[in-house]
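Record 1 of the preview.
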Amino acid sequence: MNSSTENRLGYNRWASIYDGYVNSTVFVDDAAFPPVWAHLKDQKVLELGCGTGRHTIRLAKAGNAVTGLDLSPGMLAEARRKLTAFPNVTLIEGDLLAMNLSGYDAVVTALVLEHIADLNVFFRRASGALVAGGTLFLSEIHPERIAGGTQANFRDGKTGEAVRLKSFVHVEADILNAAARSGLHLAAQQDVIGDENLPRHNPGWARHVGRKMLRIWTFARR
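->
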């Protein structure tokens, strides 16, 4: 079973509980990532790995024409339930690595890169989807956490099984080099550090305070 198929099946299992699942990484991404692209309004936006639509709905409310792409039909089913009132959203089941999309002002993607084996193909497809001068906004588990063994995982609500999604370790230099080879210029990056909001939301997350949780990159297409 290849990694795409494995993750499609895994996210299908996760879909029905995803939005209510206690997950520190998603919690931090929800707070830190939207402000980075909040200025996007009335733009044509591609969201890669849109999942259940947690960022899609924010982009749509700002008046953007959003195409949400995801491998998992289960996750997309949840997204469709949220987004029925938004005619400016198109949801597509598909694999970015096998698709040639183009003409977008911005690409937004969160917590997807860890699932990509070939960074060169990912950034080539993402760059190709952008118009000249377009922007890629990328949020991911911090490279130091990934190197330490952190990866997407959940406990199946029906069986109690601990499920770990297929993930790949990518060091910072490989990410930046693959982006540059694809014609993307690093415009900004930031580390998101766990703060006291984490244990206030869930006491068990106190261990993350002061820890590098995410890195967010902004790339511009030349």
